[in-house]
Design a protein that fits this description.
Layout lengths: L5 E5 L6 E6 L18 E7 L3 H13 L4 E7 L8 H13 L7 E6 L1 H13 L5 E6 L2 H7 L4 E6 L2 E8 L4 E5 L8 H18 L1 H15 L3 H21 L14 H10 L8 H18 L5 H14 L16 H8 L11 E7 L2 E6 L3 H12 L5 H13 L2
Parallel strand pairs: 2-9, 3-4, 3-5, 5-6, 6-9
Antiparallel strand pairs: 1-2, 7-8, 10-11
The chain binds glycine (GLY).
């Protein structure tokens, strides 16, 4: 695959950095660091799935004369976004004699990026880190914008810091071996970007997503670039989520509650939860008279055609939970203000807004329908399975 490398700048003044999108970048990653490898110390964080990539990084740094290039491997999965993993990582950094001038390199998906970024933010009151995202979700969303964090109890990302990386290196080749399920989960975040601010991009996705997910890497590069460019503009305008950045949470209050309800046991990937959450947000908007049922159906049709789940009833094994319990989990969300839920709701295709004081009875209705009490839950689940596993 030969693709031109795209360079997008996240313009945050003294914290500005570049995002590199292209193929074969892992072998050239040292060219994209904002400082020399020679004489500097690097601490590489990966998981069992990204070890081979991390080894390339370590060997390159050693060959380039880094004073130190050490590596730690965490267990893949959301459970690693915990205090225990952070403590292990921080203790390892101290044992390795981390210094203020050291740099952490996160090689992996959102979990590795988030925990590495968090440790980079707090060790020695903050050191540099580089993101080398290896999943689609991390390339289009979590590696860009400086959100780092850990899960705590029932709340995703409850503890964290805004700490921008010094570079993001998104190598499309890393996506080639991703299981389709992982690729789709990342695709949901691309759809999110379109739904919250770019209706023509959603139309483009309706036309190109199938080819893109079947290996059209030119289309994939274009979609990643469009999503990162949109996120860059949002983050530049509101780095610490005092306003417009909240729109990036479209579908996320529902999604985080559903992920928590699964106990992070792997039956629901973050992007799958976001797909269901976006449909719930559209459904709620329709019931509140904020957008049309046609918009909702269009979104459902597209996500479902791609093979993403669109109803809570499609989670397998099913969630044994009531709408009221899901609502209670939603109230643990970070976006609760003065005890009241703040949701991101679509007002049209490509337009979303922050909504306070949403009628909770309507939220319950939306959850009830998605849980499938009035449907034959089995049929919905099987319908998803057949689309999902045939792709
Ligand atoms: N993933 C949402 C954000 O970066 O704000």
């Amino acid at each position: 695959m030969s693709l031109d490398t795209k360079i997008l700048t996240i313009d945050l003044g003294t914290r500005a950095y570049d995002v590199y999108i292209g193929s074969g970048l892992i072998y050239r990653f040292a060219d994209f660091l904002p400082f020399e490898s020679e004489g500097n110390s690097f601490f590489i964080v990966c998981d069992d799935n990204t070890r081979a990539y991390a080894e390339i990084v370590r060997n390159t740094l050693r060959a380039d004369g880094a004073s130190k290039a050490e590596m730690i491997t965490l267990t893949p999965g959301e459970a690693s976004k915990s205090w225990e993993s952070a403590q292990r990582l921080l203790e390892w950094l101290v044992q390795q004699k981390v210094e203020r001038s050291s740099c952490i390199i996160a090689v992996g998906g959102g979990v590795i990026g988030d925990i590495s970024g968090f440790c980079a933010a707090v060790i020695l009151r903050g050191i540099a880190y580089v993101q080398i995202p290896t999943t689609l979700l991390a390339q289009v969303d979590s590696s860009v914008g400086g959100k780092t964090g850990l899960n705590m109890g029932q709340t995703k990302n409850m503890v964290g810091a805004f700490h921008q990386p010094v570079a993001v290196i998104a190598d499309l080749d890393a996506l080639k071996n991703l299981p389709r399920r992982q690729l789709l989960a990342g695709y949901a975040e691309i759809v999110k970007i379109a739904l919250l601010g770019d209706a023509p991009f959603f139309r483009w996705l309706e036309t190109h997503a199938s080819a893109m997910l079947e290996g059209d890497w030119v289309a994939m590069a274009q979609a990643i670039e469009t999503a990162v460019r949109a996120k860059a503009r949002i983050v530049e305008a509101d780095e610490r989520e005092q306003g417009g950045r909240a729109l990036l949470n479209l579908g996320h209050t529902f999604a985080h509650a559903l992920e928590t309800a699964t106990g992070f046991d792997g039956r629901l990937l973050h992007g799958e939860a976001v797909a269901i959450g976006m449909v719930l947000a559209f459904d709620l908007s329709v019931r509140l008279g904020l957008c049309t049922a046609e918009d909702q159906h269009r979104v459902e049709e597209h996500l479902s055609a791609m093979g993403l789940p669109i109803r809570i009833a499609m989670i397998d094994p099913p969630l044994k939970i009531s709408p009221q319990e899901i609502l209670a989990l939603m109230r643990h969300d970070k976006k609760v203000e003065n005890g009241s839920l703040r949701l991101i709701l679509p007002s049209a295709m490509g337009v979303a807004h922050v909504a306070d004081d949403v009628d909770e009875a309507q939220i319950i209705n939306v959850l009830k329908d998605s849980l499938g009490s009035e449907y034959s839950g089995k049929d919905i689940k099987n319908q998803w399975k057949s689309v999902f596993f045939s792709r």
